[in-house]
Design brief:
three-stranded mixed beta sheet, binds 5-hydroxymethyl-3,4-dihydroxypiperidine, globular, TIM Barrel, alpha/beta, single chain
């Protein structure tokens, strides 16, 4: 393959210890929805329901990573990517959510871990990337306080089977997204709606994050333990006091609500009054149990949001003005392309007491075209380069940032968007499962070489 010009950005500018990686999630790539004893997840059930996913797409096969993992690990190697983030499918390991353990699932993840290590690639495990066992959802899922102990039981099994080789762990991925979309808006699995479901799920997921992390610490004392949060740079639509106040409420919900209790600061109830309703579910000692000293926090930032005050939107009194309405450049997700957001987010989160910050996801969906065996995704290449420049700017200004993982390795199943939104450094033909490294992938390869 031809070399791609990387001369204006150099890996060394980020420092010798800076971590470079690529991120994925089980449900989005594995397929093999019922192979070797796997149980159903809430996403298996949700995708089987009519009208939930664009174009009726499902993830029965997805990228077939379950069978083609060796090929994809070889591609990670070819791209010179030293760290691979993937998630464990809870119902593959524990089909009903709690004991017994499914040996078929354990064998599968052992193969992945061993293959990565044999290739010199460091495994980074996410324990929960949204695919709750369906049997637990039948019992209320995250709205049931018992979910905290179900999750701890599952974490202990993962630590016991994989902790001898895997040092890097992320407990829960983007709690604000899956509780908001899955338990308040009903547009993601399990399709629940309403403020009561949402607040219960919020509190139990936050308790589970700390409980899971403590379990890992006990069972793998030398583990590098983190958890990941979606975050976004928020700006008011105008300088009117109402828009400024609305932006503050949205910032509280999207950037502060999940991380602050983990950092020992409690829920930011003063800045978002609806969170006071959480007091109905907070039991004695919960606030102490929510805190955990993570080794790192993973931040996942894709865009900024512009916020206007609105009396029509309950609980938050604010609306997000879409990129389309603002007539700015956007990705296939409708998210504005705004690289300085990453700088602002790094600045903001540096004001907390966090040991290490890693950007554990950043990337873009564009309508890639495979032509003559090549994908010239120059927009994605620029997107990544421009975000890396923002990281350099943040470092220059003294803000701590220790790594950058691209979302994602291959095109994959993008939840309610199905296969329409392509985020990969590697193109996937979903009919043939043929992989083609895109221009962005070649650029990243040369940058990392
Ligand atoms: O695909 C998702 C991922 O599962 C979680 N973070 C955002 C990505 C892009 O939407």
């Amino acid at each position: 393959m031809n070399k791609v010009d990387t001369s204006f950005l150099h890996k060394d500018q980020f420092g010798q210890d800076f971590l470079w990686g690529v991120s994925t999630a089980a449900f989005q790539i594995e397929g093999a929805h019922d192979a070797d004893g796997k149980g159903s997840s809430i996403w298996d059930v949700f995708t089987s329901q009519k009208g939930k996913i664009k174009n009726g797409h499902h993830a029965l096969t997805a990228c077939d990573f379950y069978n083609s993992y060796q090929n994809d690990i070889d591609l990670i190697n070819e791209l010179n990517i030293p760290n691979f983030r993937f998630s464990i499918s809870w119902p593959r390991i524990m089909p009903t959510g709690t004991h017994p353990v499914n040996q078929g699932g354990i064998d599968y993840y052992n193969k992945i871990i061993d293959s990565l290590l044999a290739s010199g690639i460091e495994p980074w495990i996410t324990l929960y990337h949204w695919d709750l066992p369906h049997d637990l959802e039948v019992k209320g899922g995250w709205t049931n306080r018992e979910s905290v102990s179900w999750f701890s039981e599952y974490v202990a099994v993962c630590a016991q089977y994989f902790g001898d080789r895997v040092k890097n762990w992320m407990v829960i991925n983007e709690p604000s997204v899956f509780t908001g979309a899955g338990y308040f808006l009903g547009i993601h699995a399990p399709g629940k709606k309403g403020i009561t479901n949402y607040l219960k799920a919020m509190h139990h997921v936050t308790l589970a994050t700390a409980a899971g992390a403590k379990k890992l610490r006990n069972l793998i004392p030398d583990a590098n333990i983190g958890t990941t949060f979606s975050c976004t740079h928020i700006e008011p639509f105008s300088q009117s006091p109402k828009d400024i106040e609305a932006a503050k409420r949205v910032d509280t919900l999207l950037n502060r609500t999940f991380i602050e209790p983990i950092l020992g600061l409690g829920y930011p109830q003063a800045d978002l009054p609806v969170l006071k309703k959480l007091n109905n579910y907070i039991l004695e000692d919960d606030l102490n149990n929510l805190a955990f000293e993570f080794d790192f926090i993973g931040l996942q930032c894709y865009t900024r949001e512009v916020v206007k005050s609105s009396l029509l939107i309950p609980y938050i009194g604010a609306e997000l003005i879409s990129a389309e309405k603002r007539n700015v450049i956007a990705t296939d997700m409708g998210w504005e392309v705004y690289p300085p957001a990453l700088y602002h987010v790094l600045k903001k989160f540096n004001s907390y007491n966090i040991k290490k910050i890693i950007i554990t996801e950043n990337g873009a969906a564009f309508p890639d075209i495979l032509k003559n065996g090549k994908v010239y995704d120059i927009k994605r290449t620029h997107y990544i380069q421009d975000h890396l420049e923002q990281i350099l700017k943040a470092k220059k200004d003294g803000y701590n940032v220790d790594g950058y993982f691209v979302w994602s390795l291959t095109d994959n199943f993008e939840w309610a968007e199905g296969y329409n939104a392509r985020f990969g450094l590697i193109h996937v033909d979903f009919d043939t499962q043929q992989r083609t490294i895109k221009h962005s992938g070649l650029w990243f390869r040369d940058f990392l070489s």
